Amino acid sequence: MKNHIRMLLAVLILAGCASVAQTQSVVPHENTFIASQTLSLPASQELKLPSGSDFNFIIISDHGRNGYSNQKEVGETMGKVASLSSTRFVVTAGDNFQTAGVQSVHDPLWWFSHESIYTNPSLNVDWYPALGNHDHGGNIQAQVDYSNISRRWKMPAAYYTLVKARNNISIRLIILDTYSLVEGFGSPDEKYTLAAAQKQVHFVDSVLTVEKEDWVVVVGHHPVYSAHPTRKNTKELVEFLNPVLNRHDVDFFVGAHDHIFQHLKDPNSKIDYFVNTAGSEVRESASNEWTQFAASAPGFSIVSATKTDLSMYFINMEGKVIYKYSRSKPAAN
User: Fold this and answer.
1) Mean pLDDT of all residues in 14-29
2) Engineering a disulfide at 63: which of 249, 252, 272, 279 sits with its beta carbon 3.0 to 4.6 angstroms away?
């Protein structure tokens, strides 16, 4: 009987792996990965959040790889750092499932690329996902519908907004579906129409017109600006989305997609533009005249807010801070 049970388990495991393999297909806008660190990183330091700050959240992106290519190691570090930093929630910047999304709410990738990776109790908080280009290779509605199954997965639509408040501090988050914008403005078709892209930008404009929170953070998979040598700036976002962000003086725009850490400043804009690195495989880094910092390292970011300061921390796979940036504003009378 025991042998029969072992054989049955083996068959089930192989079947699950086969199902995962069947979902793997190439989605446009991806290049070859380089799983090595090519820059000399600055001296790492321990994470030290601002005094009195307990409003902190993690941003992870480009992470869903069945636990391989640094994903498991980054996930373990995330759990430890989340515990030390009193992380309140997690935001993803897309490519939650490489390389072709999920096919249903019962897809094995939910287990292999998410549930079995981020197991630390400190990560049992609300997760607010964005969609990436790889996610669009699968069933987008399945990622939305998984919110009805998972306690922590909170995705009401392909793009959405929410407000988080704590200790008299408030943050407006706008989570975008940038792949639909890129396709809708760049090469519209029956699936990704120009009208739908315009509707999403109008949504952003309407939300920002009435927002009254202390801070505004916009998250999308594709970066507005990038120094990556082959990807560069996302022209559709620069032309159609960025004017709206600038008109409303958004604080942070956080993209991903390039699999490297970046912080860029447009001298004609008040916005800080960040690119979150991959929570798995990374690419070679690069810089340009707008680059404030760039590094090739697997990891994630932490955003920390007080009433007068909004800070971004880049955290590598070892849990060290390799870059910190803060913007300040006067305290309200």
Assistant:
1) 34
2) 279
Region class of 134: left (phi > 0), else alpha (psi between -120 and 50), else beta: alpha
Residue 293's pLDDT band (boundaries 50, 70, 90)? very high
Q: If 0-12 CB within 10 Å is exposed, 13-18 middle and 19+ buried, where does residue 207 land?
A: middle
Residue 20 has pLDDT above 80, yes or no: no
**pLDDT (0 to 100) of residue 2:** 41
Whole-Å CA distances, 287 to 6, 106, 154, 240, 294: 53, 41, 35, 24, 6
The reported pLDDT for the residue numbered 49 is: 67
Helix (H, G, I), strand (E, B) or coil at 251: coil
Average pLDDT, the chain: 87
Domains assigned to the chain: 55-328 (3.60.21.10)
What confidence score (pLDDT) does residue 9 get? 38
CA dihedral 195, 197, 200, 206 (to 10 degrees): -70
Residue 13 pLDDT = 38
Burial environment of residue 159 by CB neighbours within 10 A (0 to 12, 13 to 18, 19 or more): buried
Average pLDDT over residues 296-314: 95
Is residue 273 pLDDT above 80, yes or no?
A: yes
Q: Rounded to 5 degrees, what are φ and ψ at 207?
A: -65, -45
CA distance 196 to 175: 16
**What percent of the chain shows pLDDT beyond 70?**
84
Question: Positive or negative, the Cα torsion across 88, 68, 25, 275?
Answer: positive
List the beta strands (DSSP E) in the chain: 56-60, 87-92, 126-128, 160-166, 169-175, 215-219, 252-255, 261-265, 272-275, 291-295, 299-305, 309-316, 321-328
Taking 3-state DSSP, the helix, strand and coil percentages for the chain, each rounded to the nearest 5, stand at: 30, 25, 50
Residue that has been written with the tokens 């996610």 in this structure: 135
Query: In 224-244, which positions are buried (b, 16+ CB within 10 angstroms) versus exposed (e)?
Result: bbbbbeebebbebbeebbbeb
Burial track 20-35 (b if 16+ CB lie within 10 A, e otherwise): beebeeebebbeebee
